[in-house]
């Protein structure tokens, strides 16, 4: 990405699309040991499936009716799901063939290798079913790409608007890394960047709610929630509640996180949950945070960012909160040693 940007200095760049390619490549390489191009078809099918899920998720269905009559969207979803399954089977077969042909002595120790290993377990009790294997891959492709894609996009938007925070973040990055590539020890010291990430997650966290099914009837204040009800408690409601965050709740103020999350939330753990809470919280939180910090550090080491007049603010929810018309910025080189 940065190599490509060298030819676009002083010009407008649509960073949401740039980060789509970057985050697709990162999750493909780290979790699946492949490239974005290999996973491209899966990403494309998942995107179409996601649009359909998004359109239909709040529609009411009558139980059992789907068995007798299927809507066009449902038929299309089934076709897409089958396409994704075929793609996953193909990459499973590739890993299995490498072991059978003696090109590798195991299925690999990346996320996908562990799944293929569990899928080939001879013990029926431990064996992962094909359906579970496909579902795990779908979750990782979607959860591992779109979320960081959105987060990086919204952070760059904020840095382009709030030049003082961009400068503070850059000073910190240069103090810690100079013109070296980011390293893990330095990543843990990025305090200002952590504040900027948290504030962006509060205002434009990729997940706006946590889907749950009510296990047994429960009373919530005046509400009685029956068992099996699907609910979507909105964390965005908590993140933008003036009682929790004060009158400037809608403003970008990373300084609220200067003394950590506990202090910012006045020790109310559930006031800030961009990665969820409890046993189902995000398994990719640390991965996502490190990926975001590396990408931002490398950009800030090289470029100043200003907002292009072409940018139109229009966040839209398509499972994650994304900029409907992209994020257009102009980058100028810093003229250092890169
Ligand atoms: C900014 C980035 C990210 C955000 C904001 C985010 C947020 C979330 C949220 C809110 C949940 C649901 C938690 C719940 O229901 O309580 C979740 C689940 C999950 N996330 Fe993330 N996520 C991010 C990045 C990632 C990445 C990079 C990966 C993979 C490498 C990942 C993998 C997962 C998985 C597998 C689950 C399902 C966990 C389960 O159901 O047990 N996420 N994430």
TrEMBL record:
Gene Ontology cellular component annotations, sorted alphabetically: membrane
Main location: membrane
UniProt keyword annotations, A-Z: Heme, Iron, Membrane, Metal-binding, Monooxygenase, Oxidoreductase, Transmembrane, Transmembrane helix
Cofactor: heme
GO MF annotations, alphabetized: heme binding; iron ion binding; monooxygenase activity; oxidoreductase activity, acting on paired donors, with incorporation or reduction of molecular oxygen
Keyword Transmembrane: yes
Pfam families documented for this protein: p450
Database matches in InterPro entries: Cyt_P450, Cyt_P450_CS, Cyt_P450_E_grp-I, Cyt_P450_sf, Cytochrome_P450_Monooxygen
Binding residues for heme: 282
Topological relation to the membrane, as annotated: Single-pass membrane protein
This protein's record includes keyword Disulfide bond: no
PANTHER family in the record: CYTOCHROME P450 CYP749A22-LIKE (PTHR24282:SF226), CYTOCHROME P450 FAMILY MEMBER (PTHR24282)
Family affiliation: Belongs to the cytochrome P450 family.
Protein name: Cytochrome P450 CYP749A22
